[in-house]
Amino acid sequence: MTPVIAFGEALVDMLSSRLGDQAGDAPETFTPYAGGAPANVAVACARLGVPSRFLGMLGEDHFGDFLAAELSAHGVDLSGVVRTREARTALAFVSRDAHGERTFDFYRPPAADLLYRLEHLPAGVFAAPAIVHFCSNSLTEPEIADTTLAMADMASRAGCLVSVDANLRHNLWTSGSADIALVTQLIDRAGLVKLSTDELEYLRADHPADAWLAERLATGVRLLVITDGPGEVRAVGVETDFRIAPPRVEAVDTTAGGDAFIGGLLAELAGHLGEKVIEGGWHRDDALLRRAVETACRCGAHAVTRPGAYAALPDRDDLARLRG
Fold first, then answer.
1. pLDDT tens digits, 101-137
2. Which residues of the chain have pLDDT under 50?
3. pLDDT value of residue 324
4. Residue span of the structural domain in which 303 resides
5. How far is residue 11's CA from residue 221's CA, in Å, rounded to a whole number?
6. Domains contained in the chain, number
7. Inter-axis angle of helices 180-187 and 197-204, to 10 degrees?
8. Residue 169's domain is classified under what CATH number?
9. Rounded distance, CA 206 to CA 44, Å?
């Protein structure tokens, strides 16, 4: 089975007790949940039985201890995690509307995850074939952006499958909006890309959607998967273009929905890639791709029915129950 390596931020989601405008008489409280998009993906893969490793930096503080313990408890390899006293572990205060959709108030920067550099990489980290996963939140400051792009290049040259989830969080960027050119640079280094319809609309700017997707395929991306909340998921590749409808569920908290989705997608691919990681033939296996997207849909559907991130991610038994 091909291992998954996820790089980027691990942070604490402080989840509000309120749903929508229903404040009631009780004061608003915030419950800490372990989170951070790449860390969520590492946990999602581990819970589905895939060897999973997280690369990133945590503060030497209470919240860093909390995240390290949670990642370890879910079976994630932490040998690529570095601790620092130079910055604190990041926090995100999460509010939810009546449908479970979130808004974030980030306490980042400064944050420990932004201080990770190439010299912190474990020796030989990309020596064996792996799926290496990135998100755009490690592009928001110049030095971490340079580290992220260089790491993606290293993984690709080593024969790994590079995965990118756009995962745009505009309020993390100094300008208040994501740098389209920089995010596109990361996407174009990937073999597999996941983004939402809203993210596609933003990143394509004045390009027609299909033309923008075709441009990405021309740069070497092999598969783009476009989600639309509870709507159909579209998968577009050099040799494929299909849609799959996710299961219908009642959403409680969408915090980990996208991360559960991409985790399920990577986990399904990891179980069947083998030497195809190096050969690059995985994107021609239509049955595998459809099975992977279907699994991803079920993972995302399960996650939005529960609060929090790690705590909402399914294992194989959860997926079997959802299917039934």
1. 667 788 888 899 999 999 999 999 999 999 999 999 9
2. 324
3. 47
4. 4-323
5. 29
6. 1
7. 110
8. 3.40.1190.20
9. 35
